[in-house]
Amino acid sequence: MSKNLLLILTRNPELGKCKTRLATKVGDKVALDIYKFLLDKTVSFTKDLKVKKWVYYSESIWEDDIWDNKLYQKKLQKGKDLGERMMNAFREGFRAGFENIIVIGSDMFHLNQSDLEEAFSKFKGHNYVVGPAEDGGYYLLGMKYLKVELFQNKAWGTDTVLSDTLSDLKSEKIALLDEKNDVDHYEDIKDIEAFEPFLKHISE
């Protein structure tokens, strides 16, 4: 399985620096607690996945944290925006000899190990795999070949990212996964039971 690589883009969990859109409603402290909860969740559904795993930190590499050094290789994101950071991570993976590479973020509550196994299995008949997010972005992107256009001329964090990405892939063999919701705003979590402990002091 060593030809398969999972890239996980993560933010260092520091007060005021993560889930900033969520923080406008719940405050920096609760946003940080929720992000740490999502990081733990990401570890839980990736640690046993039978692929190589690289974690890309936003600010600095933390040697002693929730990402077990024996399971995850730790790296630093490079690039001025999300597109450039993803592109550089994919490029590094292909240069290292991997054939099937998937990137995810670390803010998915509804993703699990079998979803990722299914995504990797799609490479049998497709060159690209996309997991559409409900907000018009994507929660997962996979490729056999680096296509730099996917990372250029995108308004990252907006509802046009998915459609622009699919437009870039219209002539490619692409597999679309089930649509899922990532966690960016209060509305994304307010009705999910697992988040109730974080939100009990917040009024509508």
TrEMBL record:
InterPro entries listed in its UniProt record: Nucleotide-diphossugar_trans, Trfase_1_rSAM/seldom-assoc
A Pfam entry, by short name: DUF2064
NCBIfam families with a match to the protein in the record: glyco_like_cofC (TIGR04282)
Stated name of the protein: TIGR04282 family arsenosugar biosynthesis glycosyltransferase
Species this protein is from: Flagellimonas halotolerans
